[in-house]
Amino acid sequence: MTPSLAVPTIDLGSYLRPNASAEGKAKVIEQVRAACSEYGFFQVIGHGVAVSTQCQMLECCQTLFRLPQEQKEELSLKNSVARRGYERIGEQVLDSKALPDQKEGFYIGREVPVDDVSFLRGPNQWPDLPFTVFREPVTAYYQHMLRLGNALLEMLAIGLGHELQALDNFTKEPVVNLKLLHYPPHLSTDARQFGAGAHTDFGSITVLLQQPGKHGLQVYHQASGEWLAVPAVEDVLIVNIGDLINKWSGGRYSSTLHRVINTSDDDRYSVPCFYHGNLSATNPFEPGRTDGETVEEHIRRKFDTSYGLSAK
Predict the structure, then answer these.
(1) 184, 202, 204, 210: which is closest to 272 by C-alpha?
(2) pTM for the whole structure
(3) Which of 134, 166, 188, 204 lies most in the core, judged by the most C-beta atoms within 10 Å?
């Protein structure tokens, strides 16, 4: 890897603090803009999510995935129109040229009443675990991700030269999903085997929590043609641009290929938060146009491809 190349780290505190100055906010926005333009990824500190909250979330991952396989299978995402629930190892294929992903996952989103179910909207499938052990800490972490996601979208919009009002419809009752992930130790010698194959993310932005010390994320740097390792460091979250923002920004912000190979000798846990937005929204950066592809139409196509399922 070229020594000078690394996914940049940005301190969001100068934007998120209640008494943040206009100058401080402008500096953060420029750093985010530059990172999104070249890398499509950036690491963040000063994000306002306590280390204890992060640790609880990762403990929830371990507790969930250590359940008996039959209990997890009973919560299959195939049972849910809202695509909430369990994804077994090998069920997702993110890179069509690679073998099925060596990871298991569990989707959780905003709790929606059963009588208001639609694509990506509905009740969660909760595992049979004590409320304080799983659902309570997961829900608390979800609220942090919703707050942080909204703030990051503000930074992106301003960096593209738009007023915050452009996001009003897009951020109204948005679809925001956590995906708890478990990567078993990487034992395969097949070059086509990855924990998660090379892919870009479906929605607008992703905020990733990694288990400290359990490395594996690699980001493709288009200009150099190199894969850059992004270390798993305590209290550092990873943010990346998804396909929607890439398309809506006319390519100014990059949706970058990334993959995972569990380089530790142990199990690896992580939690991406996928901020898709309001499903009925079209490009918020073209407010006068309402005939474009909706968020829902875009995400449905992506699900069809990576799971081989009908998203209807």
Answers:
(1) 210
(2) 0.95
(3) 204
The residues, any chain, with a CB within 8 Å of residue 63's CB and separated by 6 or more, are 129, 133, 134
Domains of the chain (ranges, CATH numbers): 9-281+288-307 (2.60.120.330)
Note whether 292 and 283 are within 8 A (CB). Answer: yes
The radius of gyration computed from the CA coordinates of the chain, to the nearest angstrom, equals 19
Q: How far apart are CA 268 and CA 264, in angstroms?
A: 7
- With b for 16 or more beta-carbon neighbours within 10 A and e for fewer, the 192-209 pattern comes to ebbbbbbbbbbbbbbbbb
For 184-217, write each residue's pLDDT tens digit: 999 999 999 999 999 999 899 999 999 999 999 9
* Beta-strand pair 226-229/205-210: unpaired
Burial call 38-73: b when 16+ CB within 10 Å, e when fewer: bbbbbbbeebebeeeebbbbbebbebbbeeeeeebe
At residue 2, the pLDDT reads 56
The predicted structure's pLDDT at residue 3: 57
Query: pLDDT, tens digit, for every residue of 279-309?
Result: 999 999 987 776 788 999 998 887 777 665 4
Backbone angles phi, psi at 240, to 5 degrees: -140, 155
CA dist., res. 10 & res. 278, Å (int): 27
CB < 8 Å & 24+ apart, contacts of 3-7: 5/221, 5/224, 5/226, 5/228, 6/228, 7/35, 7/39, 7/41, 7/42, 7/43, 7/219, 7/228, 7/230, 7/238
Average pLDDT, the chain: 93
Q: What is the 3-state composition of the chain as percent helix, strand, coil, each rounded to the nearest 5? A: 30, 20, 50
Check whether 5 has a pLDDT greater than 80: yes
With a CB cutoff of 8 Å and minimum separation 6, the contacts of 19 are: none
| Whole-number Å distance between alpha carbons of 118 and 15 | 35
